[in-house]
């Protein structure tokens, strides 16, 4: 065999797995047809967060007046943001390539395809390996509608030649909500079209309801329960024709309707690798596919499409194969964030998930105006919520909508992973004045949330 482990896809998960396996002494190869770093580095988490920072400055400039700063009318240059983002992505590409080199991982360039259970063809040339790891990620879903080619996805959003002044976004998940805030913050008129009654399916219902109210304050418009049937042109504008006949004129239409596993032309069927109903690679708790020596991690499995999850899964596979033992990721305690404005972050169970699991739960929540906005003039509010097992007092979930939500929830994730109880939250001294202190000041039980529509 040429390698002990060969990884297809040099995204965050693939790179982490290859480096960990090499550290254990394995001979490791990895292939990539695009830029090293995968979705997160090149067209996902990193550039998106940079765009979110850029968008938030418009509010910062407005808020500053309430604190004594003279009002200014700053100009925004889209081309400068794109150029700055590109420089940072290029730097990170080099960092990732350096990590592979330092880890003594052989990097091959080209598209890969499985030839058999132990052979991968990279650019048509065979490479043999005792074990193979699929880490090919996922790509944006584009609906099959008339005129669909007139729209764009998050992949192209980071390279638009100009900032749209009017944009329609189709979708209701992370990407749709985040880009709605980004484009609105940069000055565009934004309309979000989504089939569901609310955005962020799977999040706590209180969070979903609260966030929509806050986003509407930012002049983001919503068309719930609707879909785009087709796209057309009228002059220089793109027209989004909805299922009820409404026509939305825009300078751009973005599809943010989920992501599909990158499994096409990988040779999965020929080798005997099973995929699930969504086209994702089916795996067991060890990330092993239906072929014993082939594993899959990250978005290609559609378990939890989060970069830290892919990294943890990749390292777990490396430890299982070459580190003397395996471990399983606790998906229930994975924190997550939506970098909208205001931001959303959660760890653990929502109230609805906890009740659906048959638990008797107590909930505690508070909505408040952050101290900053007592002077800024903004009417933005924040929400914090805890979901607690009524029998054991263990905190099952923590949820927040508001500035720095992700930074706060990351710390609470440690507490929930350690099995903290509500009594321990109550015994913690508050750090004042902060938004985070609200989590240790919650004392009044809230009535059960209404069942989602």
Structure description:
The chain has 453 residues and is an alpha/beta fold. It has three domains: 3-139 and 260-331, FAD/NAD(P)-binding domain (3-Layer(bba) Sandwich), CATH 3.50.50.60; 148-256, FAD/NAD(P)-binding domain (3-Layer(bba) Sandwich); 342-445, Enolase-like, domain 1. 31% of the residues lie in helices and 25% in strands. It has helices at residues 12-23, 38-43, 45-64, 78-102, 154-157, 174-185, 205-217, 268-271, 307-322, 351-356, 373-376, 405-417, 422-427, and strands at residues 3-8, 28-32, 106-109, 112-116, 119-122, 125-134, 138-140, 166-170, 189-194, 221-224, 228-234, 237-242, 247-250, 252-255, 259-261, 294-296, 336-338, 344-348, 361-368, 382-389, 395-401, 445-446. Helix 1 (12-23) packs parallel to helix 9 (307-322) and helix 3 (45-64) packs across helix 6. The radius of gyration is 23 Å and the shape is globular. The N and C termini lie far apart (56 Å).
Descriptive key words:
453 residues; alpha/beta; FAD/NAD(P)-binding domain; Enolase-like, domain 1; seven-stranded mixed beta sheet; six-stranded antiparallel beta sheet; 25% strand
């Amino acid at each position: 065999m040429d390698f002990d482990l060969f990884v297809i896809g040099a995204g965050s998960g693939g790179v982490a797995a290859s480096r960990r396996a090499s550290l254990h002494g394995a001979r490791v190869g990895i292939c990539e047809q695009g830029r090293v770093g995968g979705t997160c580095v090149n067209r996902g988490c990193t550039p998106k967060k940079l765009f979110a920072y850029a968008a938030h400055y418009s509010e910062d400039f407005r808020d500053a007046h309430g604190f004594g700063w003279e009002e200014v009318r700053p100009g925004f240059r889209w081309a400068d943001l794109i150029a700055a983002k590109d420089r940072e992505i290029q730097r990170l590409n080099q960092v990732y390539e350096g990590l592979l080199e330092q880890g003594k991982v052989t990097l091959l360039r080209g598209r890969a395809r499985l030839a058999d259970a132990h052979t991968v063809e990279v650019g048509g040339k065979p490479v043999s390996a005792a074990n193979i790891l699929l880490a090919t990620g996922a790509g944006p879903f584009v609906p099959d509608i008339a005129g669909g080619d007139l729209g764009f996805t998050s992949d192209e959003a980071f390279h638009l030649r100009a900032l749209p002044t009017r944009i329609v976004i189709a979708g209701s998940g992370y990407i749709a909500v985040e880009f709605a805030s980004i484009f609105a913050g940069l000055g565009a008129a934004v309309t979000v079209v989504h089939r569901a009654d609310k955005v962020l399916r799977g999040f706590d219902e209180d969070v979903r309801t609260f966030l929509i109210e806050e986003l509407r304050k930012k002049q983001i418009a919503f068309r719930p329960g609707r879909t785009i049937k087709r796209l057309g042109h009228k002059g220089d504008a793109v027209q989004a024709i909805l299922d009820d006949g409404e026509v939305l004129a825009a300078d751009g239409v973005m599809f943010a309707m989920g992501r599909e596993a990158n499994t096409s032309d990988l040779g999965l069927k020929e080798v005997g690798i099973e995929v699930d109903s969504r086209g994702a690679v089916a795996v067991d708790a060890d990330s092993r596919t239906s072929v014993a020596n082939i594993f899959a991690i990250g978005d290609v499995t559609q378990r939890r499409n989060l970069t830290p999850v892919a990294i943890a899964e990749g390292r777990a596979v490396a430890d299982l194969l070459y580190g003397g033992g395996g471990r399983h990721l606790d998906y229930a305690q994975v924190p997550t964030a939506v970098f909208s404005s205001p931001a959303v972050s959660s760890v653990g169970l929502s109230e609805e998930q906890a009740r659906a699991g048959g638990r008797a739960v107590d909930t505690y929540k508070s909505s408040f105006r952050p101290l900053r906005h007592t002077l800024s003039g903004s009417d933005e509010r924040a929400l914090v919520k805890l979901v607690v097992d009524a029998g054991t007092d263990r905190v099952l979930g923590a949820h927040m909508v508001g500035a720095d939500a992700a930074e706060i929830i990351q710390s609470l994730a440690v507490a929930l992973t350690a099995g903290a109880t509500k009594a321990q939250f109550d015994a913690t001294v508050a750090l004042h004045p902060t938004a985070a202190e609200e989590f240790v000041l919650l004392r009044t039980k809230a009535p059960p949330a209404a069942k989602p529509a």
